[in-house]
Amino acid sequence: MSIEISAKAITPIRLSYGNLIERFGDKRPPSRYQEAVYDVQPTAHFHYRPLWDKEHEIYDTSRTAIVMEDWYSFADPRQYYYGTYTIARSKQQEVAEHNYSFVEKRALLDDLPEEVRQSVRDILIPLRHIEWGANMNNCQIDAMGYGTTICSVAMFNAMDRLGMAQYISRIGLLLDGNETTSLDAAKKDWMEAPEWQGLRHAVEDMFVLEDWFELMVAQNIALDGLLFPLFWDRFERKLSENGGGTIAMLTEFMSDWYKETVRWTNALVKVTAAESTANNELLSEWVQKWVTRLSEAIAPVATKAFGPDGVSELNEVKEELLARLGKQGLSV
Amino acid sequence: MAAKKLNLRKRYELLTRGMGWETSYQKMDDVFPYDTFEGIKITDWDKWEDPFRLTMDAYWKFQAEKEKKLYAIIDSFAQNNGQTNLADASYLSAIKLFITGVTPLEYAAHHGFSHLGRHFRGEGARIACQMQAIDELRHAQTQIHTISHYNKHFTGLHNPFHQSDRVWYLSVPKSFGEDALTAGPFEFITSISFAFEYVLTNLLFVPFMSGAAYNGDMATTTFGFSAQSDESRHMTLGLEIIKFMVEQHEDNLPIIQRWIDKHFWRAYRVLALVSAMQDYMLTNTPMSWKEAWDIYFVENGGALFEDLGRYGLKMPKHHELATAEAEHLSHQVWSVFCALGNATGFHTFEPSEEKMAWLSEKYPNTFDKYYRPRFELWKRQKAEGTFEYLASLPQLCQVCQIPMIFTEVETDPMQISFRNTKYKGDNYHFCSDGCKDVFENEPEKYVQAWLPVHQIFQGNCGGATVPEVLEWYKFQPEDGGDYFDSLDYRRWQEWHGNAEAAKTGS
């Protein structure tokens, strides 16, 4: 039985903020996502030019060659604002925390076959530096980008990458009983080992890219699109086949995260490419450029990870990525 | 293998250091191009001590808990029409000023900290700035959500971001935020984290949040409590960065002192708006501006700078003037809002008898002598129907962008304080020695200012008449003017069963 609770009805004078009524009409109240992200960023009458970039305004559409009539055409399919974002990640970290504690308490990594342990050290631990670079790059996208729907997603992404770099570091510490042997070795590999240099070179080149949207393509679409499926999915499965199933408990966050993240990068590519032929051509060109360069850079690491199958694994991932981007409208 | 025990400090260090590297395919100076031009010398970024040791997993967990609680209360507030339990609908003027003036500053802070979160060379400093960047985004978004319900029931809250970019008095906080954003990263963090968050934040936070609590505004109070632990992290960062910079190199000290002087004064002038809010907009006032200034600046700020004396730092220049102004500030600012109340996005009103008695008590040296007469006159004129809003647009200070309303409080409180300087053949006007100093240190910057009144005269704001400009602001006819003639007043009376007043206004 339900009882009617009688409350005094008070008629509102409006349903929403004016900018949202202009965008979506006043038929129904907007979502909290819409309230939180639309039109928040200043767009006009900037008082002073940045001392650190006198060519541009503080927020300036000309920091990228991509042109949008409305920079709020993109909406995050996950509808993340700060609240929904932290609550979603909090749930994931709870699972991760449980898994890490479980593995630690039972010392499960001690039982791994030595070759699996070595593979984790050689392939997965150095990826913490890539996540660190991804943190910097997404922070840059937030700082140089335009429109809160895009910039806030980049901010969340930046913090995710810091979180994942920290999870990877914890795997290293778990492997070594809290000694830093694996972390140190991974850093040395990242800095010196020939198979990592192509990737490090590419990441450092991303650090100095001037166009933030190209950086978005290079980092979040090309690099992540190759690296996550290859190492956090396929390689992880290979480890499982070789007795390293425990590792999957520690990398679940990364693989779930990527599945989720693809949803917004797809939406972003689709909306941006559909805006104009010029955007489409530019995006396609950036994708070609970075996917080509990055697959060459990843190849030696793929070979180290998969042996002779490395290149074909990488090629499959690359084909999947290009096919997915093709579906969003790019000519790649 | 038995795992080595890690204490929290060591664990945190392992999870936040050593992930970055000295780049070799690109020069470090190209990867971090912005952190040297200001002249701040950092010899060892590893000396940076994180003031808060939060790994991301812990951050997500704590913050998500706070978010869940906050939204549960906001929802319940809306469901139960919590707006009817306010002390009075005139209190909403404070919230209108908050969402149009303060919330955009939160977003500006978000933007600035993400810039630093990428461009400081030190790993630890970057992480600290990123955490603050996402916190500031939180504050902007939770404020929008908290105030959303009020927007459905009151005027003047409907277009905060459009207005922040345009409205004459909102260029005061906007230009302050943009002053910091357009500075280099070290100056930005000195401005926002130290001058604003550490030295002056209580003067912003206490009036708004305690003011909310005193006036039955559960939604804003809840937001305030929820943001408090973020704010205390931010304050700690402010102190940490100052000490870090000073300890890194002796050449840094004079640069930092100049920034403290400048941003203290800039932030203090923004707070002038808050002073009027505190003393006049709040129905029930937890403490007067003067009392707040004495406690939070004179006492606490004084102790802070005494402590910082060992680093060679001094009290900010012109702090004596700010203290002398404390007896006048809120009255002067509220007067100009009342005089231009047809062009504000919130309601103005003369203080009630009760409020005037309170003001006399809190401001024994100034209120009755200088300010009570003008409010009584306006009240009389309104009763007689002879009151008229100011017909001309006020001249604005080139730096703080507040109309030239401040007076020579130390010599003749009825004499407008008027300063000017010539730069490249043009004459620039200032409200005070503080603003004049700021200009003269960086004239190239401040000549660029988008001064709303100049822009109106140049025809860049929708037209030459007041209604055209207000329309360009997206002010609706019922947003401004006297509270007792307002839709807010009529609805308030209706909610509280006062049918006559609801129909006719006062």
Task: Explain what you see.
- The complex is a heterodimer of chains A (332) and B (506).
- In chain A, 70% of the residues lie in helices and 0% in strands.
- By secondary structure, chain A is an all-alpha fold.
- Chain A has a single domain, classed as Ribonucleotide Reductase, subunit A (Orthogonal Bundle).
- The model of chain A has no long low-confidence stretch (mean pLDDT 96).
- Chain B has 506 residues and is mainly alpha-helical.
- Chain B has helices spanning 8-16, 28-31, 56-79, 92-119, 123-153, 160-164, 171-182, 185-214, 218-248, 252-281, 289-308, 319-325, 329-339, 353-362, 367-384, 433-441, 443-446, 452-457, 466-472, 487-495, 499-504, and strands spanning 407-408, 412-416, 419-423, 426-430.
- In chain B, helix 3 packs antiparallel against helix 9.
- The longest helix of chain B has 31 residues, at 123-153.
- Chain B is globular.
- Chain B starts with 7 loop residues before the first helix and ends with a helix.
- Chains A and B meet through helix 2, helix 3, helix 5, helix 6 and helix 7 of A and helix 1, helix 3, helix 4, helix 5 and helix 6 of B.
Summarize the structure.
Chain A is mainly α and 332 residues long.
Structural features:
heterodimer; A: 332 residues; mainly alpha; Ribonucleotide Reductase, subunit A; 11 helices; B: 506 residues; two-stranded antiparallel ribbon; 21 helices; 61% helix; globular
Secondary-structure map:
The complex is a heterodimer of chains A (332) and B (506).
Chain A: H1 18-24, H2 32-37, H3 82-105, H4 114-124, H5 127-144, H6 148-175, H7 181-192, H8 194-207, H9 212-275, H10 277-306, H11 310-327
Helix pairs in contact in A: 3-9, 4-9, 5-6, 5-8, 5-9, 6-9, 7-8, 8-10, 9-10, 9-11, 10-11
Chain B: H1 8-16, H2 28-31, H3 56-79, H4 92-119, H5 123-153, H6 160-164, H7 171-182, H8 185-214, H9 218-248, H10 252-281, H11 289-308, H12 319-325, H13 329-339, H14 353-362, H15 367-384, E1 407-408, E2 412-416, E3 419-423, E4 426-430, H16 433-441, H17 443-446, H18 452-457, H19 466-472, H20 487-495, H21 499-504
Helix pairs in contact in B: 3-9, 4-5, 4-7, 4-8, 5-9, 7-8, 7-10, 8-9, 8-10, 8-11, 10-13
